[in-house]
Amino acid sequence: MTISDESLVIDQTDQYVAVYKPTDMAVHPSDIHKGEYTLMHSIKHITGKYLYPVHRIDRAASGLVLFALNSETAAFLRTQFDEQTIQKQYLAVVRGHILKSYHVEHAINSIYNSERKPAETLLEPLAISELPIASERYATSRFSLISAYPKTGRWHQIRLHCSYIGYPIVGDVKHGDGATNRTVRESLSNRRLLLHSYKVTFQDQPNSIRKEIICLPDNSFRDFTQKAELEYGFDNT
Fold first, then answer.
1. Which SS3 state, helix, strand or coil, does residue 158 take?
2. pLDDT tier at 3 (50, 70, 90 boundaries)?
């Protein structure tokens, strides 16, 4: 898959470039994605710049990704990620009704390391719906649109934390609910993970004013929320 539309570059300065990543595309080359054409390849082709990856999202997710354009900015941004001074906001659709905020603290290991590390995510409800669509266990289907604020950056953190508290993300074939995923495939034509990197707030240089960059949900994400009657003004998130 190749990105050729320069409008997919959301914001660019001398320090960084912020871009939209579609679903089913790796952010950068790795041992897992050997030989694949990645987001990093595409954005390098569009900008003609050498890119420093500082921000990663799941291959199956969509949305905002940051690349630094020089080593100094890369080091500065990575320090902010390590110190948790960068705020990341995701949007997700989950199974069930989330009616209150959840502060989830649950350790996570990765595919690379079996050692469990502390992980922390804040989940906040935005909208709920209930459709007359039966699943394997229930007469109706309930969904929630939520904001997720990961305080740490562990592997599949938001997906695992949503599943841990009993509200798996719709379309998550690894950590989600198979019955729900089958229902939304057959009745609502959804085959993607409904997780979107929406907003990042950070400093691009020491002592600079904090920047806020937004990447609105793409058509497939919005189409599902409309079909699922999750009414929400994304521009006001």
1. helix
2. very low
The amino acid at 220: S
Q: Please give the C-alpha separations between residue 153 and each of 72, 119, 140, 200, in angstroms, as whole numbers.
A: 21, 7, 34, 13
Q: What domains can you pick out in the chain, each with its CATH number?
A: 6-230 (3.30.2350.10)
Six-digit token pair at 140?
């109706």
Question: CA 209, CA 190: separation in Å to the nearest integer?
Answer: 40
Which residues are tagged catalytic? Answer: 58
Instruction: Name the residue with tokens 């993970």.
Output: 193
Question: Residue 232: helix, strand or coil by DSSP?
Answer: coil
Q: Give the pTM.
A: 0.91
Residue 121 CA from chain centroid, whole number: 13
pLDDT tens per residue, range 95-140: 999 999 999 999 988 666 678 889 999 999 999 999 999 987 789 9
d(CA 18, CA 51) in angstroms, rounded, equals: 11
pLDDT tens sequence across 12-71: 999 999 999 999 888 876 666 566 778 888 898 888 999 999 988 999 999 999 999 999
Q: What is the DSSP letter of 168?
A: P
* Token pair belonging to 71: 């080593």
Q: Which comes out higher in pLDDT, residue 234 or 206? A: 206
Distance, CA of 40 to CA of 144 (rounded, Å):
32
169 DSSP 8-state letter:
B
H-helix segments, the chain = 39-47, 71-83, 157-164, 178-188, 219-227
Give the whole-angstrom CA distance, residue 224 versus residue 95: 13
